[in-house]
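New to this. Comment on this protein:
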Amino acid sequence: MDGTVQITPDGDPNTRIPDTYSVFSRFQICLEAPNYTVFSNKASMAQYIVEHGGRLHYGVALEEPHNAIHLALGGFYQKGIYNADPILGASGDMGENETAAFDPIFYLHHAFIDYTFWQWQLRHDCTAAGSLTVEAGKDGTFSMGDPTFPKGTALDTNSPLDPFEKPGGGFYTSEDVTDIKKLEYSYGPGSLDVDNDPGRYTPPTGPIASIARVHNISRADYAGSFVIRTHVELPDGRKVEVGR
């Protein structure tokens, strides 16, 4: 995790590789996210960066290094298109939402994500129930469509965490589990809690050239994970892939 995860090349110069770079640095930078909404997901963070002028307000959501670890350990491969296999041909379970929990390291990974989340809470004095708030209407705060929440449902810390049921009935919510001390567990010394002082890390900066938004894509329409690829058409008519 200390550096860039190496992806085994397949010898095809057209095969792109994922964003498994500087994973530890991105974990560090995400702790400087100014509020829970932008800390929690990439879409909200991207909107925050744009609304605050781009370069000087660059940030990282916890979702980014989280995703990078999944790809680094699981991944998928399509020759000439995309290679997220650290070991070519391995195609481990961690790269697919529906199979990730089959890999025992899934639980270690998410224990570290929970630890990172708690470190952000400590730094920003958001450990008590009610201290985490979602900025309503922001990108990333609506359901993309699943069996529990229809597409477009506004999500917040009181949204039910289906299928985790309370002993007395109903589902747990984020409000119920905000303070891990009330859940009777804690974390010992870790790699992200050296100082616990906001401003300790200096995030990199980079200009935003342009933004394109795609709407009306529902996860409920697809079985399992899927990848959206984006292309631009050049003046000479050629189409070039710009991201996924």
Observations:
- The radius of gyration is 19 Å.
- The first helix runs from residue 23 to 30.
